[in-house]
Amino acid sequence: MSAERLEAFLAEIYVDEVSRERFLADPRGEAAKAGLSEGEIEALEKIDRAGLILTARSLQKKRRRLASQEHRGD
User: Fold this and answer.
1) What is the C-alpha to C-alpha distance for residues 9 and 67, in angstroms, rounded to an integer?
2) Contacts with 4 (C-beta within 8 Å, 6 or more apart), sequence order
């Protein structure tokens, strides 16, 4: 089991919409492609999908807000 690999996979599905959509369509397949262990794959299959989507949207809003502030020089 690689904590770094799992963390990278989670980060990707939280911030990248295409990766997230692929994961939601086939959690086992996408997690296996990422080289995650069977235990990690099983855990990801049980992920709170609504929570994943809500958190991803929240992160997207925060990134946009921060980018806007940086652009304005705040």
Assistant:
1) 24
2) none
